[in-house]
Design brief:
9-stranded mixed beta sheet; alpha/beta; binds NADP nicotinamide-adenine-dinucleotide phosphate; 287 residues; N-(1-d-carboxylethyl)-l-norvaline Dehydrogenase, domain 2
């Protein structure tokens, strides 16, 4: 089985590396071609275009920034649709909305290919450790065929049904995560203003029912005042924007989600787009 991998950002580079290390035959492509070098050094082949990768691999996986990137790589010039042939598979693991996933699925099917969406829960470290949670939906036979690769990238995988349900699950999870992070930052800022030791706030949280790895990990960044990027803040704002749009579409009010989206928009505008999501703290705490 030959695998292709398109998109070697923070997540894609780690996920593709796990496939190469596991001994899979992997061809990689990235818009900025220099990012392929590390994977090629590890044993991957270099692809020249998404079209070429999709036409030479049995299953091509993508991990791209946002709906615009996912559409460009799948449907644009020299894109996946131009290369995918009868029976070949395309698995898009980028976080996008259900409409984007549906549009790509339709074009892949029209070209004779099989499509699966597979957004992931988990960040840079789980991507490196192969412990992501994979939220797949679409073509069941492709899900089964890609299972050996999923099991090198993730610790858990779910098949959620029709295309769009993977995107919806991912947006639900990230809107909850964004909300938790926002209220966590507010609590930390309030505590600091009230003369509490932030390390002790973390200690109290960690000892009780609200203990969780995110408060621990992001709390450490807040204490240090440094935000090395695991999950770029601009991508979280994109997820919140897409979740709010889904709420509009389904008639589900998202009072908190909409407000948290505005907070992340402010953080982007303040120059924190490429920092970690925890950098949102910098627009929560007043000087
Ligand atoms: P990233 O480091 O910003 O990487 C983005 C990738 O998309 C890069 O390979 C980039 O190529 C490519 N790209 C962007 N625009 C493009 C375009 N127009 N055409 C072709 N390629 C394009 O992001 P990431 O953190 O790996 O995240 C990737 C996806 O996973 C996003 O949808 C994100 O929301 C989701 N996700 C991220 C995390 C996380 O913790 N980081 C966790 C779960 C899910 P270049 O290198 O050429 O710019």
């Amino acid at each position: 089985m030959k695998y292709g991998f398109l998109g070697l950002g923070i997540m894609g580079s780690a996920m593709a590396a796990n496939l190469v290390r596991a001994g899979f035959d992997v061809t990689v492509w990235n818009r900025n071609a220099a990012k392929c070098d590390q994977l090629v050094a590890l044993g991957a082949k270099r692809g020249m275009t998404p079209k070429e990768v999709a036409s030479t691999c049995d299953i091509t996986i993508a991990m791209l920034a946002d709906p615009e990137a996912a559409l460009q790589v799948a449907l644009g010039k020299d894109g996946v649709v131009e290369g995918i042939g009868e029976g070949r598979g395309y698995v898009d693991m980028s976080t996008v909305d259900d409409k984007t996933a549906g549009a790509i699925a339709e074009r892949i099917a029209a070209a004779g290919g099989r499509f699966l969406e597979g957004p992931v829960s988990g960040t840079k470290k789980p991507a490196e450790d192969g412990t992501l949670i994979i939220l797949a939906a679409g073509d069941r036979s492709l899900y089964d065929d890609a299972a050996p690769a999923f099991d090198k990238m993730g610790k858990k995988r779910l098949f959620l049904g029709e295309v769009g349900q993977g995107a919806r699950m991912k947006l639900v999870v990230n809107s909850i995560m964004g909300g938790m992070l926002a209220v966590f930052c507010e609590g930390m800022a309030l505590g600091k203003k009230g003369g509490l030791d932030p390390a002790e706030i973390l200690e109290v949280l960690d000892a009780g029912a609200m203990a969780n790895p995110m408060f621990k990990g992001k709390g450490g960044m807040l204490l240090e005042g440094k935000y090395p990027t695991n999950f770029p803040l601009k991508h979280m704002q994109k997820d919140l924007r897409l979740a709010v749009a889904l709420g509009d579409e389904l008639g589900q009010p998202l009072h908190c989600g909409a407000s948290v989206n505005e907070l992340f928009k402010r953080a982007r505008a303040a120059g924190h787009a490429d920092e970690d999501i925890a950098a949102v703290y910098q627009v929560v705490e007043l000087p």
